[in-house]
Amino acid sequence: MNKKMQTISNYMAKNLLFLSYYFPPVQVSSSIRIRHFYEGFIANGFTISVLTGKFPKKMAGEQTINLPISNIYHIPLIGLRRLLSNFILTHYTFPLLWKKKVFISSLLTFRNRFPFNIIIGDGGLIYLWIAYFKAVKWIKDYKITHIFTSYSPMVDHFIAFLLKCTFPRLHWIADFRDLPVDVKYPHYLNHTFCKYFLKHLLKKADAVITVSKGIANELEKFCTKINIYSGCISPGEVQRPTIISPSFTINYTGSIYPDYQDLSPLVKVILSLIEEGKMNKKDIIWTYCGLHPCQYEQWLIPHFPKEQIDIKAYLPLSEAQKRQREATINLVLTWSTSVQKGILTTKLFEYLGTGRPILVITNGVLETEMKRILSCYQSGGYFQNSENRRLKDWITTMYRGWKNNQMHHCDRKRIAQRFSENERNALIKKVSDRTPTRKNT
């Protein structure tokens, strides 16, 4: 085989290094997006080798990937978070009360900024060192052609940056599930450095993916190669509800950010309807599953008795999804500012698969992307926290329908088509393409 044909053959190879601090079955919300990418690369014919963190056994969820992995290596995690997880931290995260303390809050802010998010953030220097040299060996041994990384943490992107510098031929695909802290909250001490760092980091990436147009608009200040992948829903995942809940159940699944999210508009509307005699207080059940049960209970306990508040700090994925399928309404609490737009929680796509009505309450300005997605699934259900009148009317309609044993219509077929596995696979094919040109052959 001549040199040119061999070069073309190398470019047609599909050997992927999947470098991900979190990887299923680790029980964190980001694992769902990571799983979707993994399945998409498999569908595109990639042979995948995985480098990931070695988490405590209590972090392990149910096995959510039953697909071939050529190689997997779990990197020992040595650091402050790992140490504290043995004594203080619940499911690898700080309690909200700790985060409100000035010292802890300042420390976390410091740790999440460049360059400290690489040095002492999740992963840290030991993870970086081990992952880099293990990757170098695998790239040589397994003829790796592509790298995939997803933020957060930033350390995975930085390792990929170093690997790209070492092996320029590699095709690097960088995913952003969220904006880096320095972009969301610019700080005068390192604003210039942050811009310089991100610009040069992403200059090495061959393709950049993010969850929404809102986040893409911010990332385009540093890179122009932005693709959007919000999530996907398998046709088999979209449920057709057949049972009406015995209670008017409002379910919330996921993390809580009390400085940004706000449940009070919904609570006030329901209390008003109860006072007007349009709702029976005893019919209502609030369910929650996530890392911050105390905060959710704190929002509700002044207004509802404990027997109407079913809160779990942690549930296996199958049980959490069972709650979502059995709920009358699945609740999304989000926020939107002039900088933070396009916040699409992974839980939204879990909710979309249930066939149950979804209620989205945004604290802040109109979130057009969230509203547009919801409009493909159901009529109404999106509100800003100031739209009390419209929210009240919607809750009244939902309650009357539940009382009359009516199923609320959701367009399961349309949402499954818009966010299909085929759309995801086509995007991955596009961003992973390394068609040789005259220049590189």
Description:
This protein is α/β, with parallel strands linked by helices. It has two domains: 3-232 and 421-431, Glycogen Phosphorylase B (Rossmann fold), CATH 3.40.50.2000; 235-418, Rossmann fold. It is built from 19 helices and 13 strands. It has helices spanning 3-12, 30-43, 80-85, 96-99, 102-111, 116-119, 124-141, 154-166, 181-184, 191-203, 213-219, 264-275, 293-300, 317-326, 346-352, 368-375, 388-403, 412-418, 421-431, and strands spanning 15-19, 47-54, 71-76, 146-151, 171-176, 207-210, 226-228, 248-253, 284-289, 309-312, 329-336, 358-364, 382-384. The strands form two sheets. A seven-stranded parallel beta sheet has the order 3-2-1-4-5-6-7, sandwiched between helices. The chain has a six-stranded parallel beta sheet with strand order 10-9-8-11-12-13, sandwiched between helices. Helix 2 (30-43) links the parallel strand 1 (15-19) and strand 2. The protein is globular, with a radius of gyration of 23 Å. The protein starts with a helix and ends in a 10-residue tail after the last helix.
Salient structural properties:
alpha/beta, Rossmann fold, seven-stranded parallel beta sheet, globular
Report a brief summary of the structure:
The chain contains 19 helices and 13 strands.
